[in-house]
Amino acid sequence: MSDPVKSVASSTAPTAPAGAPVPGSDTYKGWLFKWTNYIKGYQRRWFVLSNGLLSYYRTQAEMAHTCRGTINLAMAHIDTEDSCNIVLTSGGRSYHLKASSEVERQRWVTALELAKAKAIGMMHEQSGRVQSRASAWERTIKAWERSHSFFILC
Fold it and tell me: Residues near 147 by Cβ (< 8 Å), separated by ≥ 6?
């Protein structure tokens, strides 16, 4: 009898030994089990990690038309419960995920943490550009005000 918690993860970038995620990988995909409720328990879902977002689907074929949910990792907390479980907390919700093995769980945790760090870095970079543009705009306005001070009535 085969193990019902099989998980196959793949990365679109070159992989390290045993399929482990590689720093700089753009996408990481694979099967994980997601806790749904007490009646259905854990359900197998296809997960896709890309650009700091973890999306999940019922099947790989469903990717073309129906995403079941997306978690923004920049705002998420990543934790492990035991040898196979991952808990993601984001926006007041907790997502309980289960991998087929401790090794597979660690691959996912590594990929999630790398994606989270990259997403946070991109947020800071964008924030810096916005502040830089705002500072440049403020300098332009102040220069204009100095050169046109006779029009400003206070």
Answer: none
Q: Is 136 exposed, middle or buried (0-12, 13-18, 19+ CB in 10 A)?
A: exposed
In one-letter notation, the amino acid at residue 3 is D
Query: Bridge partners of 53?
Result: 50, 72
52 and 118 in contact (C-beta within 8 Å)?
Answer: yes
For 3-38, what is each residue's pLDDT tens digit?
444 445 555 444 444 444 554 557 899 999 999 999
Q: Could you tell me which of 74, 75, 97 has the C-alpha nearest to residue 84?
A: 97
Distance, CA of 129 to CA of 126 (rounded, Å): 5
Identify the top-confidence range among 4-8, 129-133, 134-138.
Answer: 134-138
Compute the residue count for the chain.
154
Q: Cα-Cα-Cα-Cα dihedral of 134, 140, 142, 147, to 10°?
A: -170
pLDDT, the chain, mean: 79
Amino acid at site 115: A
Q: What DSSP element (H or E) covers 149? A: none
Which tokens is 55 given? 């999306």
